[in-house]
Design brief:
The strands form five sheets. The protein has a six-stranded antiparallel β-sheet with strand order 1-2-3-4-6-5. It has a five-stranded antiparallel β-sheet with strand order 15-16-12-17-18. The protein has a three-stranded antiparallel β-sheet with strand order 7-8-9. The chain is 29% helix and 18% strand. Helix 9 packs antiparallel against helix 10. It is globular, with a radius of gyration of 25 Å. The longest helix has 25 residues. It is α+β, with helices and mostly antiparallel strands. It has three domains: 82 residues, Phosphorylase Kinase, domain 1 (2-Layer Sandwich), CATH 3.30.200.20; 177 residues, Transferase(Phosphotransferase) domain 1 (Transferase(Phosphotransferase), domain 1); 190 residues, no CATH class.
């Protein structure tokens, strides 16, 4: 889509505006020359009505500033943004290539290529989610590909993260219907889970050449997204059958049943390429996504296209302090492995921890395996023929053991089991903590991590006594969801009180120099302050000052 626009041949501040590159509901994108810096750029000029809305202007400035700081290489770089002569603009890198929607008109991509592309876009989305941004319009037209096939995710400058309605003044649905999560059709919700759904739709289209659902009206689309079975890509294209379960999980009608992040979706798709069955990480039943409702806006893809072909190539935590100021910015999400034929993502703007001695983690892992194996053998021998199934999930309230409760109770949803679930669950907990301790000490000592739970045996709530078997079941649930889970004993770490035996569950997939990134992770997973906290794991630091909470 190129040609003459009403601003072609004019000037806007330092920009000499050339041909029209694309047009959307929010404005137009032009090829422009920045006379001040001597470079060609893609200049997005928003409609005059946008600048006349004070609420939109404030959000536009806030979100554009945040996006400009994102370090992920697959987010389209923003050079500048602001207002000139009453016109809001975004100055972006000019990308020579075609968007994915244009590429897919030629047919589906090879499965490996499709998954590699989605993996890279997933890294960009997770980086934005870690900073509290939800894209809300993920679709092929917003994924620009360079001539070499390197993808950029567009329109993060208009991503939203506030609590206002998602409907336009005329009540028109915002976002592309073919890629919208079922909960989006009520016009008032946008979450990490909805971005996961949309990216899964993109993956389906990249594999098959068409969106999962097709229709000519909002009503038809709404009915399909809400009630139609999730289509199987293997029935429509030569892709591994294991990919069907990936698509089914990513497009689950219930947001709580989808992958916990876009990166988790990409990892499952990579496994499916090898024919591995996918055990989807389903969130615990207390999942309560934070609804993010943006100010009125119109779906508006930034199209920067040129006719060039693309080359194939919960837990239970201590009572929080009265308040904790939010950090000004968050670090990018941990990088995702890039496909062999594409540039790898950088490590982000936050400093990485010093590289530990390779021998220490290796020895720690060996020790963990030996101790874990011994525990499993003992567990099997003691369990005998016991096969009592786990009971249903229920919500419990417990008093924190690590610090006195001063702000009420913290509720969590745990997968409860009968006490006969294991012959000696205490031995299993001790073995798990003993195996995890050297690994945590070697890789995460004096680092801030995400603390998901802190429980002790014998806590009573609503007539139920929580035993060690229940704690084991909770840990298993987090293992299934996140994978990188470690269990700590408060006796081993001075950052916890040692008045009684407490078992602490942490997410060990990342460690940071400060608490803010861990708190951002909690927000990304839609946990409130009572269900997720930042904890400093240290062999020397005292209890005081080792816990932080979101407001």
């Amino acid at each position: 889509m190129t040609g003459e626009g009403e601003r072609s041949g004019t000037r806007l501040g330092p920009y000499s505006i050339g041909r029209l590159l694309g047009r959307g509901g929010m404005g137009e994108v032009y090829l422009a020359h920045d006379e001040q810096r001597g470079r060609d750029v893609a200049l997005k000029v928003l409609h005059l009505s946008a600048a006349q809305d004070p609420q939109f202007r404030e959000r536009f400035t806030r979100e554009s500033r945040t996006v400009a700081k994102l370090a992920d290489p697959h987010v389209i770089p923003i050079h500048d943004f602001g207002e000139i002569d009453g016109v809001l603009f975004i100055d972006m890198r000019l990308v020579e290539g075609r968007n994915l929607a244009e590429v897919l008109r030629d047919g589906p991509l090879p499965p490996a290529r499709a998954v590699a592309l989605v993996e890279q876009v997933a890294g960009a989305l997770d980086a934005a989610h870690a900073r509290g941004l939800v894209h809300r319009d993920v679709k092929p037209a917003n994924i620009e590909l360079t001539e070499a096939g390197f993808p950029y995710l567009l329109d993060f400058g208009l991503a939203v993260a506030d609590t206002q309605s998602r409907m336009t003044s005329a009540g028109v649905f915002v976002g592309s219907q073919a890629y919208a999560a079922p909960e989006r059709f009520d016009g008032d919700s946008a979450t990490v889970a909805s971005d996961v759904y949309s990216l899964t739709c993109v993956l389906f289209e990249a594999l098959t050449g068409h969106p999962p659902y097709r229709g000519e009206s909002l009503g038809v689309m709404l009915k399909q997204h809400l009630t139609a079975p999730v289509p199987r890509p293997s029935a429509q294209a030569p892709v591994p059958a294991a990919m069907d379960s990936v698509i089914a999980t990513g497009m689950a009608k219930d947001p709580a049943e989808r992958f916990g992040s876009c990166g988790a979706l990409a990892a499952a798709a990579l496994d499916a390429l090898d024919g591995h069955s996918v055990d989807a990480p389903v969130p615990p039943s207390e999942y309560d996504p934070t609804i993010i409702r943006p100010a009125p806006a119109s779906s508006d893809p930034t199209v920067i296209s040129h006719p060039f072909p693309v080359q194939p190539t919960t837990p239970h935590l201590s009572a929080p302090p009265p308040s904790y100021p939010a950090a000004p910015s968050y670090p990018p999400a941990p990088p995702y492995r890039a496909a062999p034929s594409y540039p790898a993502a950088p490590q982000g703007s936050y400093p990485q921890p010093p590289r530990p001695n390779r021998l220490v983690p290796v020895l720690a892992v060996v020790a963990a395996v030996l101790v874990g194996a011994t525990a499993v053998l003992g567990y099997v021998a003691l369990r005998g023929g016991d096969s009592t199934p786990a009971a249903s999930t229920e919500t419990v309230t417990a008093t924190a053991a690590s610090q006195p409760t001063t702000g009420g109770t913290a509720t969590t949803t745990e997968p409860a089991t009968t006490s006969s679930a294991a012959a000696d669950p205490l031995a299993a907990l001790r073995a798990r903590a003993a195996a995890d301790r050297p690994v945590v000490e070697a890789t995460l000592n004096d680092r801030w991590v995400v603390q998901l739970a802190s429980k002790y045996s014998g806590v009573i709530d609503r007539g139920k006594t929580w035993l060690d078997a229940d704690i084991l079941a909770e840990i298993a649930a987090y293992d299934r969801r996140y994978g990188a889970i470690r269990v700590l004993s408060n006796y081993d770490w001075p950052v916890y009180d040692s008045t009684r035996q407490v078992w602490i569950t942490i997410y060990a997939g990342a460690g940071w120099d400060s608490a803010e990134p861990a708190l951002a992770w909690c927000l990304q997973q839609n946990y409130d302050r009572d269900h997720c906290a930042a904890k400093l794991i240290s062999t020397t630091h005292p209890v005081a000052g080792s816990s932080r909470y979101n407001e």
